[in-house]
Specification:
Four Helix Bundle (Hemerythrin (Met), subunit A), two-stranded antiparallel sheet, 8 helices
């Protein structure tokens, strides 16, 4: 919901670091580093080390923001870079709730994690296929921009468009951070995020019903 505003601030803040970092590290390498930090965070959750896991999660988010800035500042934006970035992001987004569920080893937490991941699955379909249809219909710059454009955080190239929804990259960062800060409340946090993501799916469905039948 706040991604456009925050992305502009992030790009201005990261630009000087990205130019220096881009001198010896490509954007895909930064994406891979972010992925390793995110998976390490999930691994440390399994051991109950929530504070170091939080630090690794924040490293993942910072690096994930840097890869796109490196690509733009060094003119190395590619479609493959954006694709790699989002594939790695989604893997981390799935691994973290699974790690919390395994650590708690509770039926209730397992079920809430299953609900969250199921909604994530539907959410991915709700915007990925909608983006493909937008490309097909030539609405990338017309219809979607009228609604406010959202792109996956950190994409290296012009990323897939989608209508603005309640949950975006900024909201995901905040809610996932709460998992680490309040690990005993992850059941409620999982269900809360699942509900908000479901609202986002419904927002896109309403948008699609209004626009795609024209």
């Amino acid at each position: 919901m706040f991604d456009e505003f925050l992305r502009a601030l992030k790009d201005r803040f990261f630009a000087p670091f990205a130019r220096r970092l881009g001198g010896f590290m490509g954007p895909n390498t930064v994406s891979l580093f972010a992925f390793l930090a995110g998976m390490a965070s999930a691994g440390v959750v399994l051991l109950g080390g929530f504070f170091p896991a939080l630090l690794l999660w924040l490293v993942n988010r910072i690096a994930d923001g840097l890869d796109g800035s490196v690509a733009r500042e060094t003119d190395r934006q590619t479609d493959f870079g954006g694709y790699l970035d989002i594939m790695l992001d989604f893997t981390v987004y799935a691994a973290v709730p699974v790690a919390f569920a395994v650590f708690h080893d509770s039926r209730e937490v397992y079920l809430s994690a299953m609900v969250l991941l199921a909604v994530f699955y539907a959410n991915a379909a709700s915007w990925m296929y909608l983006s493909a249809l937008a490309e097909k219909r030539g609405e990338k710059r017309r219809g979607f921009r009228e609604q406010g454009q959202n792109r996956p955080e950190g994409g290296h190239s012009t990323s897939l468009p989608m209508p603005r929804g309640l949950i975006g990259g900024a909201e995901t960062l905040v809610i996932y951070t709460l998992f680490f800060v309040f690990p005993g409340a992850v059941k409620l946090l999982f269900l809360g995020m699942a509900f908000l993501t479901l609202v986002t799916i419904l927002q896109r469905l309403v948008w699609a019903r209004r626009h795609l039948d024209r």
